[in-house]
Amino acid sequence: IKEIAEQLNSYITRYEVNTCSQIKHFLAQAKHETGGFTKFREPLNYVSYTGETLYAMAPTAINDGFKRKGITFSSREEKIQWIQDNLINNDAAYGEHAFGSAEQPGKDYRGRGLLHLTHYGAYKRCGADIGVEIHKNPELVETDSRVIVETGLWFWKINKLKRIAEDRSITTDVAVEGITKIINTGLKGINERKRFMIEISQ
């Protein structure tokens, strides 16, 4: 946490996350995404899922993996069975299948960093902007404190989250919801994000 704080102090001005309101919103979101600043890599072990429920949760990502690998099935049942046999409770396989890239075979571009940068295109664009080839070394987004922080700040700025965080015409809860929808379209963990915002504001 000390390293993260030091890096934030070094970079927040560069990315214009320089108001009390922005910093509180940024930290509340980051605290949820990282499990209290302890996990900078999204876990993908879906032990309580079945092939059916995992496919229902992420059909686009899973189908993109099949397309990228040229895997086809004769029936939906065969597809679900393949998911059950190969992706359930298999972090590495699911990461590579759902978040892999033809440009960098064998690597995965799952959510990493303070705000969980996700997908090859985002890694490549962000890496070009911050001057680190994270599209070739995605692990840096979970291991290098500077990269962990700067990718989060980059995501914040590129998605113009400042305008929501500083909008005085809406309530704090509405602002948290608006920011969360951009970070996680399903509003996962919205109540915890709101609670963290309250705690950080005290």
Work out the strand percent. Answer: under 5%
Main sheet: strands, sense, barrel: none
- H/E element string? HHHHHHHHHHHH
Oligomer: single chain
Shape: globular
Task: Describe the overall structure.
The protein is mainly α and 202 residues long. The protein is 59% helix and 0% strand. The chain contains 12 helices and no strands.
Quick overview of this protein structure:
This protein is an all-alpha fold.
Please specify the SSE layout and strand pairing.
Layout: H1 2-11, H2 20-33, H3 51-57, H4 59-69, H5 76-86, H6 91-99, H7 120-130, H8 140-143, H9 145-158, H10 162-165, H11 172-183, H12 190-201
Helix pairs in contact: 1-9, 2-12, 3-5, 4-6, 7-9, 11-12
Task: Based on the model shown, name its key terms.
about 200 residues; mainly alpha; 12 helices; about 60% helix; about 0% strand
